[in-house]
Amino acid sequence: MCSKITSDTRWDDEGQTNDGVPRHLADAPFWKDFDSKHLVFFSEGQNLRLAIASDDFNPFRTMKSTYSICPVILISYNFPPWKCMKQSNFILSLLIPGPIVPCGYMDVFLEPLVDDMVEMFVVGVKTYDALKCETFQLRAASLLLKFNGPIW
Description:
By secondary structure, the protein is an alpha+beta fold. Helices cover 31% and strands 24% of the residues. A hairpin with a 4-residue loop joins strand 4 and strand 5 (134-138).
């Protein structure tokens, strides 16, 4: 509904320099490969490319407490680099409570999020585009990668 956010979500499709030099995670080879395999997703510039981030922490700041909480955050790669990693653009999708981190049972907590992500990729949701003043079918995708070391 906000034209500024609509314009920001189109940055990776319209606003960046396309000279073959990777400047953003949306320029990564795995996203290019994804685009070539999923042309319906690639055809709409506002479709969301998401990262999923999670880590556990102790909210009480004491090492003696065994309670922990694990937030699961979605980060949109559509935004320009200077906005992509701002906290205001993070989507808090899950809060997994402790008393201890449920590492062995993480799939139980993530199942609703995975179901929603599959639906957002396959079906999408009807959304209003404030720049074009029309509705379109918004889709979302997230690539989960396993790295053997640091990304950078």
